Amino acid sequence: MLDHETISALGRLGLSEKEVAVYVALTTLGEATAYKIAEVSNVKKPTVYVILEDLRRKGLVLKIPHAKKQLFVANDLEEYVRDRERDVKQALCALPALRATSSPHSRVLFFSGVRGITEAMDYKFASMQDKSLASFYGNMAGSEQILSDIYEPWHEKAAAADVSFRIIVPTNSAHKHFQPLQRLAKEKPGIELRQVPFDVPPDTSIEIGDDFIRIITARDMHATIIDNMNVATTMRYIFDSVWATSSRLSTTNPNGASSSRVPRSHK
Prior knowledge:
The protein is α+β, with helices and mostly antiparallel strands and 267 residues long. Helix content is 44%, strand content 21%.
């Protein structure tokens, strides 16, 4: 008999539980009648006949010709697997055409609590490698420490995946909340923080990916994701305009005042 792992693999190839049972029984018997297959597989004889026909159409079972009794033999599994590989390749080749005819992807997702925000932070993470994230961060002075505990390891993980960051904060930010990022920027390229001379909602961050926006509110511990490339592109235009008039974020001096000057408006 085949081992459990092999039987499970057959199921993943698209065979039903009874199809697997009949095929495995036939591989054990070598060649057999439907009656014998039913005995070994514990599948009722009328059902075995139906399944044998299905397996014949799939190329997994052959009927021995010119036999006095109907005899069946299992076909080589390798040929069936190769057929499935060809099917997958053909489907992959068809994907660009299918995507071209599909409607623009757009959805809004909501998350809450520590677990929800953690899930929101990892949204589309696998596709962000070597890409850029543009972010507006509010004055984080009043935010919960637990949010900082989520952001800090996530920034390190993202930087390790070669995600680059451009982050804008207001000039009245509590810079201590961004010191871990500043330290990370010294170790990893592609991380830059700048400041602007106006305030934004004190506990809100807006992060802009290639095709989505993530909005996190610290006070309520809520996260909203807008998955829409057009919206993300528009927000990036706004971000780039603000970025052009911003100045680099400096470290705070011992008395808590910022050493950076407010940038002059560009004429």
